[in-house]
Write a structure and sequence with these properties.
Blueprint lengths: L1 H20 L5 H25 L8 H17 L5 E4 L5 E4 L4 H4 L15
Antiparallel strand pairs: 1-2
Helix pairs in contact: 1-2
């Protein structure tokens, strides 16, 4: 299984490198928008595929529980560590060992490259 995870990480790094090295104007915004668009599309297709034989969800909380248990497990081989809402009613999912971020440094060397949310 470690081989599959390594391949996924290499593909992920190459996709990011492809968008970073793509010539064009306003590179920072274009890169972020293209990566977000790609991620949204992939996530949407995965959810549609995983839920095609499931009954409709009754409410928002049921959707979030599905994401935390079934979807996250199918994609990342583990459940979300914590699900809660913030003071504005927005769901906050916490994964203490998220695969795609564990390789990053604890320092500030990547903060300039990370999108400001």
């Amino acid at each position: 299984m470690a081989d599959v995870e390594s391949l996924f990480e290499f593909v992920h790094m190459e996709i990011v490198a492809y968008f970073l090295n793509k010539p064009g104007k306003n590179v920072d915004n274009d890169v972020i928008q293209n990566l977000e668009r790609l991620g949204f599309g992939v996530g949407q297709r995965l959810v549609e595929r995983f839920t095609k034989d499931s009954p409709r969800f009754k409410d928002e909380l049921e959707i979030m529980k599905y994401i935390c248990k079934d979807f996250w497990t199918a994609v990342y081989k583990k459940q979300i560590d914590n699900l809660r809402t913030n003071h504005q009613g927005t769901y906050v999912l916490q994964d203490n060992s998220f695969q795609l971020l564990t390789q990053m440094s604890d320092g500030k060397q990547y903060t300039e490259d990370a999108p400001k949310v």
